[in-house]
Amino acid sequence: MFKKILYLLLLCLSTKTFADDGYRLWLKYDLIKKQQERESYARLTKFIVVNSQLDIIKTASIEFQSGLKGLLGKSVPVVTSSKSTGGIVFQLSLNKDLNEEGYSITSQNGNIVINANTEKGILYGTFELLRNIQTGKSLANISIVSNPKIQYRMLNHWDNPLGTIERGYAGSSLWKWYELPENIDPRYKDYARANASIGINATVVNNVNASARFMTKEYLLKVKALADVFRPYGIKVFLSINFAAPKILKGTKTSDPLDPQVRAWWQAKTQEIYSIIPDFGGYLVKANSEGEPGPQDFGRTHADGANMLAEALKPYTGVVIWRAFVYKPSSKDDQKGDRYKEAYKDFKPLDGQFDKKVIVQVKNGPIDFQPREPFHPLFGAMPKTPLAMEFQITQEYLGFTTNLVYLAPLFKECLESDTYVNGKGSTVAKVIDGSLHDYQLTAIAGVANTGSDRNWTGHFMSQANWYAFGRLAWNHELSSEQIADEWVKMTLSHEPKTVKTVTKLLIESRENYVNFTTPLGLHHIMGQGIHFGPEPWLMKSDRPDWASAYYHRADTLGIGFDRTKNGSEALLLYTSEVQNQWNDPAKTPLPYLLWFHHVGWKTKLSTGNTLWDELCTRYYTGLASVKDMRKQWDSVKPNIDKEIFEDVAGRLAVQEREAIWWRDACVLYFQQYSKMPIPAQFPKPERSLEEVKKLVEIYQLR
Amino acid sequence: MFKKILYLLLLCLSTKTFADDGYRLWLKYDLIKKQQERESYARLTKFIVVNSQLDIIKTASIEFQSGLKGLLGKSVPVVTSSKSTGGIVFQLSLNKDLNEEGYSITSQNGNIVINANTEKGILYGTFELLRNIQTGKSLANISIVSNPKIQYRMLNHWDNPLGTIERGYAGSSLWKWYELPENIDPRYKDYARANASIGINATVVNNVNASARFMTKEYLLKVKALADVFRPYGIKVFLSINFAAPKILKGTKTSDPLDPQVRAWWQAKTQEIYSIIPDFGGYLVKANSEGEPGPQDFGRTHADGANMLAEALKPYTGVVIWRAFVYKPSSKDDQKGDRYKEAYKDFKPLDGQFDKKVIVQVKNGPIDFQPREPFHPLFGAMPKTPLAMEFQITQEYLGFTTNLVYLAPLFKECLESDTYVNGKGSTVAKVIDGSLHDYQLTAIAGVANTGSDRNWTGHFMSQANWYAFGRLAWNHELSSEQIADEWVKMTLSHEPKTVKTVTKLLIESRENYVNFTTPLGLHHIMGQGIHFGPEPWLMKSDRPDWASAYYHRADTLGIGFDRTKNGSEALLLYTSEVQNQWNDPAKTPLPYLLWFHHVGWKTKLSTGNTLWDELCTRYYTGLASVKDMRKQWDSVKPNIDKEIFEDVAGRLAVQEREAIWWRDACVLYFQQYSKMPIPAQFPKPERSLEEVKKLVEIYQLR
Fold it and tell me: Which residues form the Alpha glucuronidase N-terminal domain (chains A, B) (predicted)?
């Protein structure tokens, strides 16, 4: 026996179990090191009482068993009833303090009871209990009541049929369409587990720039295979649709939403989908945006298009999620033209015209997932239309997978912004969770950062962004620090100094990134071709509002986009209280200054610096902060798995290189206009402007 | 202690060490089950005598130690000298029976001595010795002398800078260009290990449709980081070049190879490359092919272009590998026009005009990696020019990653083809290995099937194609069976029935694939957009020679491409002996019949069937063989790792579905011309022609 164990052990060793490749995410379930701790948990988890055969309940008990097997190194029996104490009880029973997916976890006469109204609540409660053990919390007198604040907590995958991912940087798509439906990659299940563990209950598996092939039976059967894997984890599948699908698939002569044949086509298609996937979630639509087809191609409105799909979905539980990310090129002679205003112009007038089954999905900011944006003016402006939040988890504009940027602070900043539409405290979060306008449907979406890379997200630390999105989707009142602390303990280490250091690293990372790329409210000055590196010098593009100069408007007088009534008037889209925050350049918080004002180079800022000096200071300190991040990371080396440590250390080194480009590019480019010297305390840039331009060009070559 | 071990073990179990995800390829080093066997090997491997500090020798000893740690579950000490017996001795000493990379393994007074002229020989000998243990061979009185028959044994990666792979189906590129040079993915090393273990000593890391960015210092430093990882495994890095790079990178006004400034640019660039990568392998060039730039853009010949690069490489060890894959569209009024002849027309006249440093790389067949092609007419036709073989390991035309197709028989079929240029026995293999024309440079390339998928190749069984390529590159006299047997034992199981069954499965798989896709010499009738599925009905494409009809020429009289003197005359490019094999439709072996002849539907074939009946029979039996493959695979289930078994079983199910499409599509389409019934013994097709067309269309949609 002993010999056998030794051999097995050698086998384990020989396959390098101990180098952590990050595949297990925050569900590691590694053995708790302190025997005492293990035993104290073991005393409270002697058995699981389960008296339901529901698949999702089964999922919960299996997950709990494998969790404890890992964490405590022991097997926990599942029983249907028990008189004794020291066990876990799954209690599926009516509880009016809980909504459909909520749960409570309480100590009741010697047992820990997970109570919920539905099997999904039990599943989420089970993961909560596991999380408590993973993060080392005491279970004695545990008393938790938790309800998700938002109904649809979803990932949007911008995954294409041939396996590429638009704005994906972590390998290719998780979905192997050629192999489906017959071959089921075991990874599909691990994907579902990870999402369920953080409360994500919906996923859109295909790109919003959608292929019509997903509306064919051939592909619906593939999607069904995924839905069958996700269902036991409480996850519903949605599909992005190509609005022109009826015509593309030769079902109709047009795709006009008011054409009876088109309406009939969508009704028949929807019926077919539900015959294949009975719990299908619904449609996500990118229409009349960036070249995609839509109702406006036929002189109809977004409401006409969305309502047609809602009509098709009427007999079913599904909903229509219609994206508000639209921006017509503003006409040359329109002096007030500003991409900032486009979505508002199109959608605000439609408030009240959408079917009850329609949700309008709005990006957090008015431009496009920049490192920092003001909240989107549509939030609060459509009281009669459920608005969903669209965040981007994949780091399209935040350094791909070579920059450590923890996004919870970005998400929170937007959610906590006050729209003032119903007076103080009318936060974006309250718009999204429906409490402000009493929406009957609520949703929040994150554009996924997952891919086929072994660690799922490319940059190991980007796993924290997937995690944070899910946790905030469930409860937007959690703090960024709280979520970071949880994630670090579940994923990296329990050693107090390490937890403290890495949490701090995460919390500060986003502001650091803003500082060395787009400080003081600069935006959209990155390399155009692939949204990589700096390109503030781009004066022209296929569209004026794709060029950097359109946004920074640097000239010999100053820099920044005047969006006040003297400028594009975009600021007028907000309530007067919000306008007052940002109207006066002297009072505008520095993070938003150049979003709304064209400011003179020599203007003195609240920091005491001139604008030019402050701009330089931000770029230089931004770079310094990256060097500091590397020091902080090095300091925790002894407590981090070697493979993970090396990977993050390597990427931080790349980040420093990129930060130098950004600083050199922006400081030298804008200096051409300011004609002012770089403050004396800072060293010279490492490269000439020409040299940085060349570097960025290289990355745009075929 | 015991308790600790138990916990460690639980940890291993909790991370599922036992489900095999295929990552370890054929280097599993799992513990040998029979204790007796382990001990008998252990008696002969008590220590390793190493008295060299060369990196590659270090690689060999480390690999041998970790191999034995896994296989025998014991640590083997490395010593610098030993009087005792029962050990392994690395002996670096002159041996005239061995070429530069060859090795001998012999029992000498109680030790096993690996002897070689260079450290690379020791490395290859070490892997040979490990392979002997992995495949259960006895080491008693071992006596092996092995020399690679070809100098450059290389992989060609068609990997693009942004991570996509042209014709790659196993995820995204292994090379993380954004992260390089700072971040070194541990996988780079495992890639090098796998290649070294089968004797591959060179790799071209970027696509032949090359980005000029690889000629910039920014990227050369990234390539250097890879070269540094590969070097200790005896692998040299090559780069594909964009012939217009001097102009694209604004170094010159033209890229004319005879322009002095252009020649100077390449000389300076080459010098720069060697200053960064001292053992750089050289350049691979796709010129004037499928839109790529080349010397003909300036009225120069391929020789002019290649010789310019050779001149730049003159001071260094590197070589130029120039691809012969070119095919101008033959002019409408050229009645004899045939893509088959294009490369020959361009290159044959240049024989003798290439610099000594130039190798011309020729695809195995005259068209493009079809499931079966006659050998390329250039083989044997350029005695003064070293010709390299280009095989395709990735299954562009052989079912991507959803079809089990073992390619060794395809490779062997070409290598063993007799060109008769110097009389009988003038095989293609002898052209490639230089023995026929006394080439001073020899090379063989395989277009890689590797990607970021965990198991490297998507279809687990496709690992065997990577393995087989390497083994044949080293010794083209190995049989397909021998290689399959080795691979199965190293990768899947030692259980005799399993080895026999899976080996048979592999050996028959390629002919099965030919039968249900392109039997009797049909070729290039697949879906054009992505080379997926059947599309024999394609009459027109952007180029006539991209359309299916161009190749099958089906009409009411018959089917096939007459390439005799009455047709395109392509057959006349071969020696008379070869012509005689294929000249007479009555005598032409059936696998090549429709490659060279337009045959009447009712023509009786050697099988006794009419052409039409034989065609139907092949498509139907091809499908039947897939069903049988599934049965064979199911029969070995008890002896195969569960995860691997399920994955292959799932893909075989997909393969059956695709085989049905092919059969239905081709039988029904050609029946429109033959106007003859499907032989009575066969069931009706499952779909109408319209239905299959629709299916294929779906997979070609955006």
Answer: 25-129
**Residue B654 touches chain A, beta carbons under 8 Å:** yes
CA A343 to CA A351: how far, in whole Å? 13
**ipTM computed for the complex:** 0.95
Between helix B119-134 and helix B186-197 the angle, nearest 10°, is 80
H helices of A558-610, in order, are 576-583, 593-596
* Domain segments of chain A as ranges: 25-146, 152-479, 516-561+598-700
The pair of structure tokens assigned to A562 is 């005047």
Q: A152-479 maps to which CATH number?
A: 3.20.20.80
Q: Which amino acid is at A467?
A: Y
Query: DSSP assignment, residue B424?
Result: T
Q: Looking at chain B, which residue has its C-alpha nearest residue A16?
A: B17
What distance, in Å, lies between the first and last C-alpha atoms of chain B?
A: 60
Cβ atoms of B428 and B533 within 8 Å: the answer is no
**Cβ-proximal residues to B368 (8 Å cutoff; 6+ apart), any chain:** B325, B397, B524
Contact B434, B442 (CB under 8 A): yes
Is A483 in contact with A471 (CB distance < 8 Å)?
A: yes
Residue of A nearest to B698 (CA): A213
Would you say the CATH fold of B516-561+598-700 matches that of B152-479? no
Nearest to B452 by CA among B165, B58, B41, B39: B165
pLDDT digits (tens, 9 = 90+) for A533-554: 999 999 999 999 999 999 999 9
* The two structure tokens encoding residue A601: 């180079």
Q: How confident is the model at residue B14 (pLDDT cuts 50, 70, 90)?
A: very low
Amino acid of residue A246: P
Helix A480-491 and helix A463-474, axial crossing angle in degrees, nearest 10: 130
Task: Sort out which chain A residues have CB atoms less than 8 A from B400's CB and list them.
Answer: 178
Q: C-alpha distances in angstroms, A167 versus A207, A292, A397, A444, A450?
A: 10, 17, 9, 19, 11
Q: What is the mean pLDDT of chain B?
A: 96
Separation of alpha carbons B350 and B387, rounded Å: 13
Considering the segment(s) A516-561+598-700 as one domain, its CATH architecture is: Alpha-Beta Complex (3.90)
Neighbouring C-beta atoms of residue A61, cutoff 10 Å? 20
Task: Using the CB atoms, write b or e for A548-562: b if 16+ within 10 Å.
Answer: bbbbbbbeeebbbbb
- The helix (run of H) or strand (run of E) holding residue B354 is none
Characterise A147 by phi-psi region: left (phi > 0), alpha (psi -120 to 50), beta (else). Answer: beta
Q: Does B94 contact chain A (CB < 8 Å)?
A: no
* pTM as predicted: 0.96
Residue B671 neighbours by CB distance under 10 Å = 18
- Written as six digits, the tokens of A399 are 């350094």
Residue B444: half-sphere exposure toward Cβ, Cα within 13 Å = 31
Split at pLDDT 50, 70, 90, the class of A2 is: low
CB contact under 8 A, A651 and B14: no
3-state class of A108 per DSSP? strand
Cβ distance of A171 and B171 shorter than 8 Å? yes
- A698–B2: do the CB atoms touch at under 8 Å? no
- Left (φ > 0), alpha (ψ -120 to 50) or beta: where does A13 sit? alpha
Alpha helices in B492-575 (DSSP H): 496-517, 548-552
What pLDDT score does A19 carry? 84
- Cα of A3 to nearest chain B Cα, Å: 11
In tens, the pLDDT along A291-316 reads 999 999 999 999 999 999 999 999 99
Rounded to whole angstroms, how far apart are CA atoms A531 and A369? 11
Q: In CATH, what class is B25-146?
A: alpha beta
Q: How far apart are CA B587 and CA B593, in angstroms?
A: 9
